[in-house]
Structures are given as structure tokens and as C-alpha cells.
Write a structure and sequence with these properties.
It is a single chain. The chain is mainly alpha-helical. The protein has one domain. Helix 1 crosses helix 2, helix 1 packs parallel to helix 3 and helix 2 packs across helix 3. The chain is elongated, with a radius of gyration of 14 Å. Keywords: Membrane, Transmembrane, Transmembrane helix.
Length: 93
């Protein structure tokens, strides 16, 4: 059950980060910002969990939840921004 909650926290944080990135001119539309942000949040959230040494789906203490929120949010923000930037560069040609 803890693994499920960890993944949900990462996806939601990534979706929020993706929508924040979508506020710039690199936005993809609200639906795509949410989906791409969720994927980025999941991926970077798992990487941050592995680097920080927290077991996947480990205890739900403050450090673990904070790590998942930050990793997921930043991952969603970065992936959405990069995908939007690539989309805008391809449309400009």
C-alpha cells in the first residue's frame, strides 16, 4: 500500500509541476501539461527516491513524502517545459 501512495504522490506532484510549466509560453494545453507532468513526476520521483536511499514504497515519514513531492514536482515541471520547448521549435520551422 505504501508503494501505491508513493506513486500517487509523485504523479500528482508532477501534474502540478507540469501545469506550472504550462503557464509559460512553452505550454502544451492543460490536458497535455497534466499528462506529461505526471510522467515526468513519476520518473524523476523514482530517481530521487533511489538516489536518496529511501526504499521504494518505504515508510511514509516527512522526509519520504517531501522527497516524493519535490522530485515529482520538479520532474513534471522540467519534462513539460522541455517537451513544450521542442514542440515550439519544431512548429517555428
Amino acid at each position: 500500500m505504501d508503494m501505491f501512495i508513493t506513486l500517487i504522490i509523485q504523479i500528482i506532484s508532477g501534474a502540478v509541476g507540469g501545469n506550472l510549466a504550462g503557464l509559460s509560453k512553452q505550454g502544451l494545453g492543460s490536458g497535455l501539461n497534466t499528462v506529461v507532468g505526471g510522467v515526468g513526476g513519476l520518473v524523476l520521483g523514482q530517481i530521487v527516491s533511489a538516489i536518496s536511499g529511501l526504499p521504494p514504497g518505504g515508510a511514509l515519514d516527512v522526509a519520504a513524502v517531501g522527497s516524493n513531492i519535490v522530485g515529482g514536482g520538479v520532474g513534471g515541471l522540467v519534462l513539460t517545459f522541455v517537451v513544450g520547448w521542442i514542440k515550439n521549435k519544431m512548429a517555428a520551422k
